[in-house]
Design goal:
Length: 413
C-alpha cells in the first residue's frame, strides 16, 4: 500500500468517529496552545525589558556615591561625586561618548492657578540628552552658559505640558518652583511609561548648578550621580574600566581601600532580567508541556480502543495480503495525523491567545507598549513535538495491531 493510500484510509477511519477524534486531540490542542502562548508572551516580556533599558539611554553606565563601611557596618552616606568628576570622565576617557551629573530635587510646579508635582525634578548637564538618547520635541536644551551662570531655565516633559498648559505652547512661559520663576526653553520627546508604570514624561530638567544653588541652597560641588554613555555597546566594559580607574585616581583611593563610588553597567542589569524572564518562560512552557503528555496518553488510549474495535478489519486486510508493516504504518499515521491536527489548531489558538493577552496587557497598562511577538520557531517546534507525541504514543497500539494473528482477528466478535 502506498503512503498516499495509507493517509486516505487513515483519514477515512478518523472521520467515522469525529467526536472521539475531536476529544482525543483536545489535550494536544491545549498543550500546544499553552506552550505557544507562554513562549510568545515570554519573548514579549524579554523584548520589553530590553526596550526599557534602551529607553534609559545609549550604552549607559551609572556612577553612584558609595557609603563608607566601618567594621563591616555601612555608615551614613557622604556624597563624594562632583561635577568635576563628570567633566573629567567625558574628556579623559576615550571610550566615553558623554557624561552628565545629576542633582535631585523636589517641588510643586505652579503656572497661573494650576499646580502639578512631577515624578522627577533633576538638575543635569548639557550632555544629558546625549547620554539618555532623548531628542527635543520643541524649543531647545539649556546651554553651557546657562549652566555656568545658574540660569533659571528648564525643559519639561509632555505630561507636564498636558497638566499645566493643555493645548497652549509652553515655550517661553514662566513656571514657579518653590516660588522661584523658571522660564521654559524646551519640551522633550514622549517616552511613555516604564515597566512598573512610572510616567517618564512627568519630568522637569534644569541646569544642575541652578538646582544646587536655588533649590538645595548648597554651594558645594557635590552631585547625586553621574550618567555616562559609552561610545558603542562593544566598549561598555572598556568605558566602565576607564571610569573606575579615573575615579580611583581622582579620589586618591589606595589599593585595598574601599571605593567611595559604585559603577553600574545597565547592560548587565538588562542581561540579568533577560535571563530571569527566559527562565520563567521556560518554566511556564514546561508546565504547559505537561498537558501535551496528557494529550499523548489520551491518543494512546483511543488508539488502543480503535485497534480493539477494528480487529476484524485488521484480520480481513491481512487475509487479502496486507503485511504487518502496512498495519503498523496505518495506525501510526492515524496517531500522527491526530497529533498534527491538534498541533495546527493549538498553534493557531496559541497565536491568537498571545496577541490577545498582549493587547490586554497594553490596555490595562496604557503607554507601556508590550511588543507583539509571535515565535515562529516555537510554533514549528510545537508542531514537530506534536508529531513526535503521535509517533511515541501511537507506536504501541500500532505495533499491537501489526502483530495480530489474522485467523484470531477474523474470529474476533
Amino acid at each position: 500500500m502506498s503512503i498516499w493510500d495509507t493517509f486516505r484510509v487513515s483519514f477515512r477511519a478518523l472521520l467515522k468517529n469525529k467526536m472521539r477524534a475531536g476529544l482525543t486531540v483536545l489535550g494536544v490542542v491545549i498543550g500546544i496552545a499553552a506552550v505557544t502562548t507562554m513562549v510568545s508572551i515570554g519573548q514579549s516580556a524579554s523584548a520589553l525589558v530590553q526596550n526599557q533599558f534602551m529607553a534609559l539611554g545609549t550604552n549607559v553606565i551609572v556612577v553612584f556615591p558609595e557609603a563608607p563601611r566601618k567594621s563591616g557596618v555601612r555608615q551614613a552616606l557622604t556624597v563624594t561625586l562632583t561635577s568635576a568628576d563628570s567633566r573629567e570622565i567625558s574628556t579623559q576617557c576615550d571610550a566615553v561618548l558623554a557624561a552628565s551629573p545629576i542633582v535631585g530635587a523636589s517641588g510643586q510646579l505652579i503656572y497661573g492657578n494650576t499646580n502639578w508635582s512631577p515624578n522627577e525634578l533633576s538638575g543635569v548637564g548639557k550632555d544629558y540628552l546625549t547620554v539618555r538618547n532623548w531628542p527635543i520635541y520643541a524649543g531647545q536644551f539649556f546651554t553651557e552658559d546657562d549652566i555656568k551662570s545658574g540660569a533659571k531655565v528648564c525643559v519639561i516633559g509632555h505630561t507636564v505640558v498636558t497638566k499645566l498648559f493643555q493645548t497652549a505652547n509652553p515655550i517661553g512661559e514662566i513656571i514657579r518652583v518653590r516660588n522661584i520663576p523658571f522660564r521654559i526653553v524646551g519640551v522633550l520627546e514622549k517616552k511613555g511609561v516604564d515597566m512598573v508604570g512610572n510616567d517618564k514624561d512627568n519630568i522637569v530638567l534644569m541646569p544642575y548648578t541652578t538646582v544646587r544653588k536655588r533649590l538645595q541652597g548648597s554651594n558645594f560641588d557635590n552631585v547625586n550621580a553621574i550618567l555616562v554613555s559609552a561610545v558603542t555597546p562593544a566598549k561598555m566594559q572598556q568605558a566602565t574600566k576607564q571610569v573606575e580607574d579615573l575615579l580611583y585616581e581622582r579620589h586618591a583611593i589606595m589599593p585595598g581601600q574601599p571605593a567611595d563610588f559604585r559603577v553600574q553597567d545597565t547592560t548587565e542589569i538588562a542581561a540579568t532580567l533577560g535571563i530571569i524572564t527566559g527562565v520563567l518562560t521556560l518554566m511556564l512552557s514546561a508546565i504547559a508541556g505537561i498537558s501535551l503528555l496528557v494529550g499523548g496518553v489520551g491518543i494512546m488510549n483511543i488508539m488502543l480502543v480503535s485497534v480493539t474495535e477494528r480487529t476484524k478489519e485488521i484480520g480481513i486486510r491481512m487475509a487479502v495480503g496486507a503485511s504487518g508493516g502496512d498495519i503498523l504504518r496505518q495506525f501510526l499515521v492515524e496517531a500522527v495525523v491526530l497529533s498534527l491536527i491538534g498541533g495546527v489548531i493549538g498553534v493557531t489558538l496559541g497565536t491568537l491567545a498571545s496577541v490577545g493577552a498582549t493587547l490586554l496587557i497594553n490596555q490595562l497598562n496604557p503607554g507601556q507598549d508590550w511588543p507583539i511577538i509571535i515565535s515562529i520557531p516555537a510554533a514549528l517546534v510545537a508542531l514537530a513535538f506534536a508529531a513526535c507525541v503521535g509517533i511515541f504514543f501511537g507506536f504501541y497500539p500500532a505495533r499491537r495491531a501489526s502483530r495480530m494473528d489474522p485467523i484470531d482477528a477474523l474470529r474476533y466478535e
